[in-house]
Design brief:
22% strand; Protein-Tyrosine Phosphatase, Chain A; 26 strands; 6-stranded mixed sheet; UDP-N-acetylmuramoyl-L-alanine:D-glutamate ligase; 496 residues; globular; Udp-n-acetylmuramoylalanyl-d-glutamate--2,6- Diaminopimelate Ligase, Chain: A, domain 1
Length: 496
Amino acid sequence: MTKTCAELFQGMECTIIGDGSEEVAGLAFRSDAVCSGDMFFCIVGNVVDGHSFAQDAIDRGATSLVAERKVYLADATDVTEVVVADSRKAMAGAAAAFYDHPSEGFSLVGITGTNGKTTTTYLVEHIAEVAGNRCGVIGTVGNKIAGIVEKSDHTTPESPDLQKLFARMRDAGCTVVTMEVSSHALDLKRTWGTDFAVTAFTNLTQDHLDYHHTFDDYFEAKALLFSAAYPARRVINIDGAWGRELLRRCTEAGDEVITTGFDTTAQIHPLEVAFEATRTVATLEVRGARVEVSYPLVGRFNLENVMTAFGCALSLGIPTDVIVRALATMPPVPGRLEQVPAPAGAPVTVYVDYAHTPDALAKAIASIQALSAGRTIVVFGCGGNRDASKRPIMGQAALAADLAVVTSDNPRHEDPRAIIDDILAGMEGAEGFIVEPDRRAAIAAAIAAAEPGDAILLAGKGHEDYQLVGDEVLAFDDRQVAAEELIRAFGETEND
């Protein structure tokens, strides 16, 4: 499959220097990934400027360049250059054109927010499948094409990778695709040129301020998905001020909006709720009608996710009775309040959850407390080379548990003890916590400290099966480690 330079940039403001009929065999934004006949995009990043790698790209076989300024190359007079104002936006638009605008071939649901994106995408996928659709999923846990799971490197891939993935989903016959849309991806224009059927907002709490710097900037990045650049039907959780601001903007723009939340003015909100150990039973008001739902997910925050997914499904035209039927058979979401198999007769319960923000941690602890008659013990840490300002707030949030075990969580290139010290700054003067930097030892310590009837929450890593330490990727899965430590403490699992 090839396209000409002129075809890729049709309708875009640009200056083509050279042969506009030059055939493009592929798209690349890293010079070390260039293949013969590729178009190389000179991306201006926060650390490096892709213009500096233009010559290397040419040497590796690139026959065309996209740049924000004229690039002067040695012995490359036959190279076609496309000069644009924004190379990231140009790359996204060209990628969509290269793969024949694949997002137009299915109904795409884009879900953004700090917490709940993964669970909501899985909920929408399951509902759509029960409704008879073949589905795709793009997100943190991985990508799925018609049920086949693949690992992913980013929550939302770079635009050439994203459009290629869309094309594979289209070609596999997917009719509904659900995607987590990160604030980074929106700010970096990875989704530019993508056609959404529905965009949804879950919530906004502290995270990624190392990148966005302020809450306002973080919100504005999320809000891009609800701007005129991405026309779609909207689903918005209005429990928080940020959601209400989004609703105001979308209403002013004349968008079709379904509101969700515990707020009684929301079009989808709960009337009655019973949180049980293994499921939730609720009566929802759905646009004026009473709807009874029962689903095998637990916790208040999962009810928020269910209501958002309900709104997305309605926006896709899926009937209410089909949505209710699908929710009743919802499978567990990897690493999202996932219960660890325990030996028969084990007196404690262990859950694993991805909660890695203060709000998510507080909600996960509250959910465990509502499910358990005993004490709640939480094991948690904070990632290195990420938003350090949330670390003491995470420490404060963890104090809601009866016992907190502070440990390491993907320290990357930071000293794990220094990260822990940042967390402890929010726990100063408090009791009810211990420190164990080794994560396996921390999990073992939590199990050893538990009494019959207690519940343990392992927070922060969820589905991840690795630990990032320096440049190393070490095998480590909270679920597996916890299962091993439970066996060590109580004997073989009930399945053995």
